[in-house]
Amino acid sequence: MSGKSTLLAALATAAVVTGIVVLPATGHDVKPTGTLAFTGKGSNRDQKMVDAPPKGISLGDHFLGAETLRQAGAPAGRMEVDCAAVDRTYAGQACSMTLILKDGQVTAQGAGVDKRIPGVGGTTPPTGDEFAITGGTGAYQGAAGTLRLKSGRTDAVTLLFSP
Fold it and tell me: How far apart are the two ends of the chain, measured CA to CA in Å?
């Protein structure tokens, strides 16, 4: 997972991605499976960097942001993000996200570092920053899997649900 700068950039631009997901019918106790993909474009209006002393990126800094999620160009939900700088030694941050979707919500969280940890690593995989899906509501109740946030010239948010 890359650091704060990549996550901040991921909330600023959009990409075109398609996806499919199998959702349980209302009242059934079946976890969602498959892939659900979105594009998004953040705006300065919905993003805030809170710079805790000392000035510049340091422990306690926070990034708060939100963006509209789209599928095939149409609004499909909203992503709310809260990240905090928590590791001075390896330039690390911890993030939590909530995706507000038509059929419920999906929550995810994770952490990453900008500097490699000896024997462990710490750079962004080619598939993008990865966060653990920690649960959901409505059609996403009991959700598990991985949320991928791919940044660069184009960005995408992909939910990979595990059975």
Answer: 24
- 86-114 exposure pattern, b = at least 16 Cβ within 10 A, e = fewer: ebeebbbbebbbbbebebbbbbbbbbbbb
Which SS3 state, helix, strand or coil, does residue 4 take?
helix
- Residue 81, phi then psi, degrees to nearest 5: -130, 140
Q: What is the pTM of this model?
A: 0.78
> In angstroms, rounded to a whole number, what is the distance separating the alpha carbons of residues 83 and 8?
9
Beta-strand pair 92-101/74-87: antiparallel
Cβ atoms of residues 39 and 92 within 8 Å: no
State the Cα–Cα distance between residues 65 and 47, nearest whole angstrom: 4
User: 49 in helix, strand or coil?
Assistant: strand
149 with 13: CB under 8 angstroms? no
- Long-range contacts formed by 115-121: CB under 8 A, 24+ apart: 115/89, 115/90, 115/91, 116/90, 117/90
Contact 70, 51 (CB under 8 A): no
The pLDDT, as a whole number, for residue 152 is: 60
Q: Give residues with Cβ within 8 angstroms of 54, minimum separation 6.
A: none
Q: Which of 5-9, 38-42, 53-57, 97-101 has the lowest mean pLDDT?
A: 5-9
